[in-house]
Design goal:
six-stranded parallel β-sheet, Quinone Oxidoreductase, Chain A, domain 1, 2 domains, 346 residues, seven-stranded mixed β-sheet, ADH_Zn_CS, alcohol dehydrogenase (NADP+) activity, GroES-like_sf, alpha/beta
């Protein structure tokens, strides 16, 4: 065991504070990673404040981790000391179920092991990336290409793969009209990736406040959902709408924007239940779906794609002492577009 510095929430809704945690000794297939940067995801806030249900405390959030390997176990073959690596939202799975065998570890039928706020296969709590070091099995570690700066790469381990996976699954590309609902930490990466895939991209946001940013990042069109005319003008337009919004929506209104056989895919997860009139999907044979992150192979594919297209996240680099302020700013939509912690300040 090794003692390392971290920032943790001692209890639900409590401010995060500096502390120390224990990391396990490096096992046969493990890598020890010196964390350089950790992104702040809205999921961190949901979990630290028990918005998604009962959680484990003390909690060290953080599942957007970029760093450098400093030690490897004797059986490690994928990585060497000095490699630039990342860790996302999960650090283990059963590895034998149908989904794991298909490279869909995120949908492990036995439940994947979250990077934080989870119990590992030995019943020990997991702690995330708001810390100086982490020990992870090489099978759940990915390589960060040299073409990506580590600070801009960190948010790709959640925001990048969470948008890349459904965009690929629902075939965003040339000839497809794709709407990204929400222009935040997830949404801005959705715009970049959908554009790079060749789709015609529209941003749907509450206001036009971020319109210039959206167009700069690759959107072809930008509309405000607060304007009722938007739903009249765009009715029946889109092949795919990717919702990154973590607040309840009028699903019936948004489903009206789809073409026949279109799909409305949720990657944002509101804390409250939502309602739906089933005629909104029956008419037009529309799909209402959800998507999680991606498997390890797809996450590596996403990182390579982003490196090839120069797609890093748009970030605000902060010190660890600014984490609590950053949480409040995320809730106020006052970040462009992802806070990233310089873990050297922990």
């Amino acid at each position: 065991m090794t003692t390392v510095a971290a920032y943790a929430a001692p209890a639900a809704k409590a401010p995060l504070e500096r502390t120390t945690i224990e990391r396990r000794a490096v096992r046969e297939n493990d890598v020890l990673i010196e964390i350089k940067f950790a992104g702040i995801c809205h999921s961190d806030i949901h979990q630290a404040r028990e918005g998604w249900g009962e959680a484990l405390f003390p909690m060290v959030p953080g599942h957007e981790i970029a760093g450098v390997v400093t030690e490897v176990g004797p059986a490690v073959t994928k990585f060497a000391v000095g490699d630039r690596v990342g860790v996302g939202c999960m650090v283990d799975s059963c590895r034998v179920c149908e989904n794991c065998a298909a490279g869909l570890e995120q949908y492990c039928t036995d439940g994947n092991t979250g990077t934080y706020n989870a119990l590992d296969r030995n019943g020990e709590p997991t702690y995330g990336g708001y810390s100086t070091h982490i020990v992870v099995d090489e099978a759940f570690t990915v390589r960060i290409p040299d073409g990506l700066a580590l600070d801009e790469a960190a948010p790709l381990l959640c925001a990048g793969i969470t948008t890349y996976s459904p965009l690929r699954h629902w075939n965003a590309g040339p000839g497809k009209k794709v709407a990204i609902l929400g222009m935040g930490g997830l949404g801005h990466m959705g715009v970049k990736i959908a554009h790079a895939l060749g789709a015609e991209v529209t941003v749907l946001s509450q206001s036009l406040r971020k319109r210039d940013d959206g167009l700069k990042l690759g959107a072809d069109h930008y509309y405000a959902t607060s304007d009722p005319e938007t739903f009249t003008e765009l009715r029946g337009t889109f092949d795919l709408i990717l919702s990154t919004v973590s607040a309840p929506l009028d699903l019936d209104a948004h489903l009206s924007l789809l073409r026949s056989d279109g799909a409305f895919v949720n990657v944002g997860a509101p804390e409250e239940p939502v309602s739906l009139n089933l005629f909104s999907v029956i008419g037009g044979r529309k799909t209402l779906a959800g998507s999680g992150i991606g498997g390890i192979e797809e996450t590596q594919e996403m990182l390579d794609f982003c490196a090839a297209h120069g797609l890093g996240a748009e970030i605000e680099l902060i010190s660890a002492a600014e984490i609590n302020e950053a949480y409040e700013r995320v809730l106020a939509s006052d970040v462009r577009y992802r806070f990233v912690i310089d873990t050297a300040t922990i």
